[in-house]
Amino acid sequence: MLPAAERHRDLMAAGDQVPIPDDDLEDGVDDFDLKELHSFLATCAPQDAAPALAAAAAVEQTPTDAAQDWKAMLGDGRGLDRGRRGPAPAAAPAPAALQAPPSAAAGELALPPGFENGPETNAPAPAQGAARQKSNRLHGEDAAKVKVELADPTAPYLSTNSWEELRLAKPIMDAIYDMGFTKPSKIQEWTLPIAIRGENIIGQAQNGSGKTAAFALSMLIVTDPSDWSPQGVCVCPTRELAMQNFEVLKTLGKFSEHTYFLAVAQIEKIPKKVQDALVVGTPGKLQDLMKKKIIDPKGIKIFVVDEADMMLDEENQMGPQVLQIKKFIPGEPQVLFFSATWPDRVSDFARNMVTRPNRITVEKNDLTLTTITQTFIDCGDGPRGKLTQLCDIYGALNVGQSIIFVNTRKSAFDIARSMKQEGHAVSLICGTQRTGEERIDESYRDLIMQEFRTGVTKVLVATDVLCRGIDVPAVTMVVNYDLPMSYWHRGNVEFDTYIHRIGRTGRFGLKGLAVNLISSQERGSLKTVEQHYNCQIAQITGDCEEMEKIVKALR
Q1: Tell me: domain 143-363, CATH 3.40.50.300, correct?
Q2: Could you tell me if 401 and 126 are in contact, meaning their C-beta atoms sit under 8 angstroms apart?
Q3: Which pLDDT band, with edges at 50, 70 and 90, does 509 fall under?
């Protein structure tokens, strides 16, 4: 195992933080390469896991029968996955945290109102190959330029052209080749040689560029699998992204003796002491476990923040939590910040937080947009214009899989209920809320994501809790029911959120369709998106047959 080089960095004191009251980001999402997802989907994709999907389809039964089936599926699996000791088999089972959860027992939350029988299922799973198409290189990446700002301009750093040049430990190399990675992506070419030397990195590359593999490999490389105390921590803004990154880390480390711990809000009892080398979790849970000494931070060597622009934003409620986690770690751990977007205000703050960072940027502004056909439908001014149009295009939403983004949890519930009443099968996900009519708990969120990933459900209504980093290759269409708007600057489009939303499709060299449902009053806001990204958003009629042709032509 390659040792980490001596680290030189200081943590500047944090200023006052302004919390943002967004209940969708209660704990709040980057991207990984298609091949990483292939390895995970190989254990749970519809064509390879028919028995599991048949069990998951039990959500159509009565609540009592469904509850029994969910418990049977879950078995004795624990939500807080501590990984394993010793080498793993080549095909790892689906994680317990992503298995269908048991029904609400006494004292636990029931399913959300209107969804007591579980999300409806409809069409068959995506056709074979839809979620398995391989791409060795990200679309347009060969034309991308890499801008590198080294902490030491005199340092003799060179990018690597092959995995062999990195001289990684055999278990890690075996996992890389087992997943079919032929060569590093652009972001990996530069980050891994620097990470191996134990130096700090602020990395930026567009969606689907392999950032997750870059920091996951870095964590495996600089930590000692024989030491069972926590050595590496990865902080993620939402439960869903933490689980996804956790699976990527375990898959890349499946031949090593590393052990892993998933720290997200759970119903199950947590251990008295975490004895695992690598920890992935959300900021709220990690902060709590470190404060209670359940996670001992004294041996942590590497500190990773995914979707760092969101996590470090001084206007975001997660900022103080991330800073506190960093302060719990003694000494000067290696720090890796990764994101697809870096607003100037956050970039400056990140530079101040990390001493002597190496800044790596894959410079190709249209790296995501080139794979996405952006369109809009004029829905008029009527109060039900958008909902009517959404129901009209439902057939096109089912060609592959689709995500419908809304701005509030209330809108998510209202739209999901209305579509169900019209006879359209949809599922719903948003942030955890334990009271009121819009309540959703963690086990329900896990079930919804498992069903969507495996193709049991095909149309998902979501808030921005899902806009960052979630990778489901079968997603062919993203619908913006509402344009994302800035909380702090009323009336302004949140451009970074827009690009993250539509980036849930058109990933890893595949193509996708983004549809914006626009009222007459929103035409001006849509124009600002075109100007900001120097792109054209074409108007379409919204005819279902027309849209089905567009979507089918993409794949």
Answers
A1: yes
A2: yes
A3: low
325 close to 291: Cβ distance less than 8 angstroms:
no
Query: Which ranges of 229-384 does DSSP label H, i.e. alpha helix?
Result: 239-252, 283-291, 308-311, 318-328, 344-353
Assign 198 to helix, strand or coil. coil
- The full set of domain ranges for the chain reads 143-363, 368-555
Contact in structure between 224 and 277 (CB atoms under 8 Å):
yes
Let me know: does 14 contact 320? Beta carbons within 8 Å: yes
CATH superfamily to which 368-555 belongs:
P-loop containing nucleotide triphosphate hydrolases (3.40.50.300)
Q: Is the dihedral of CA 290, 292, 295, 299 positive or negative?
A: positive
Cβ 526 vs Cβ 373: under 8 Å: no
Measured in residues, the chain has a length of: 555
CB 301 within 8 A of CB 221: no
320 CB contacts (<8 Å, ≥6 apart)?
14, 17, 19
φ and ψ of 66, to 5 deg:
-60, -40
232-235 and 372-378 strand pairing: unpaired
pLDDT tens digits along 177-234: 998 888 898 889 999 999 999 999 999 887 667 889 999 999 999 999 999 899 999 9
Under 8 Å between Cβ of 532 and 495: yes
Best CA proximity match to 503, nearest among 378, 308, 309, 341: 341
